[in-house]
């Protein structure tokens, strides 16, 4: 939450922030994310972690270990940190 609070106070537009949502995310963290969006900062770019992990395994054949290492590539598609990576269908 400290990153989101600092970004909101400084009102920086670059670098941007990404957020990997999952069902166990703390409500306070979600509030901070929504506050940044509410203030018009354009971030964080939110991604649904369980869906993207499942997509990496089912559509692209990655192991669960590889699928869980995905990184957010700016406004592009998520990609695991392996040498092969993946692109969504």
How is this structure best described in words?
By secondary structure, the chain is mainly α. The chain has a domain at 2-48. The protein is built from 4 helices and 2 strands; from the N terminus they run αβαβαα. Strands 1-2 form a two-stranded parallel sheet. Helix 2 links the parallel strand 1 (18-21) and strand 2 (45-48). The protein is elongated, with a radius of gyration of 14 Å.
Beta-strand proportion: 5-15%
Mean pLDDT across all amino acids: 82
Poorly predicted runs are none
What class would the helix/strand composition place it in? Answer: mainly alpha
Strand order of the largest sheet: 1-2
Q: CA-to-CA gap between the ends?
A: 32 Å
How would you sum up the major sheet?
2 strands, parallel
Element string (H = helix, E = strand): HEHEHH
Name some characteristics of this structure:
89 residues; mainly alpha; two-stranded parallel ribbon; 4 helices; 2 strands; 39% helix; elongated
Short description:
The protein is mostly helical and 89 residues long. 39% of the residues lie in helices and 9% in strands.
Topology:
Layout: H1 2-10, E1 18-21, H2 27-38, E2 45-48, H3 49-58, H4 64-67
Parallel strand pairs: 1-2
